[in-house]
Amino acid sequence: MRHLLAMLTACALAACGYTPLAPTTPHWDARFGDNARATLARQVIDPAAGARAPANAAGIDAGAARAGYERYQRSFSGAAAQAPKFMISGDGK
Fold it and tell me: I want to staple 60 with a disulfide (CB 3.0 to 4.6 A). Which of 22, 51, 64, 77 is the partner?
């Protein structure tokens, strides 16, 4: 009786450890990543946009752009970069 129980236990453990040579999810593996690629493709409005020059490119001239950039850089120096005149604190002052 003891040998029979040992043989049944060994067979059960062998069945649990069996791994087939073929993958167990062939249908899932064949379509792996399809949803991610489709979502990425839906985010592109015009895939050929980089191949042609824009017909109605809106922008500003170079002088105005440079002046705006320099004004932006100067805003971080001097009085504008100092601490604010008032502070909200929790100590009631």
Answer: 64
pLDDT at 58 over 60: yes
Tell me the residue type at 22: A
**Distances from the Cα of 92 to the Cα of 36, 83, 84, 85, 86, angstroms:** 54, 20, 18, 17, 13
The pLDDT value given to residue 37:
93
Alpha-carbon distance of 67 to 65, in angstroms, equals 6
Note the pLDDT of residue 82. Answer: 63
Range list of H helices, the chain: 2-16, 26-30, 34-42, 62-74
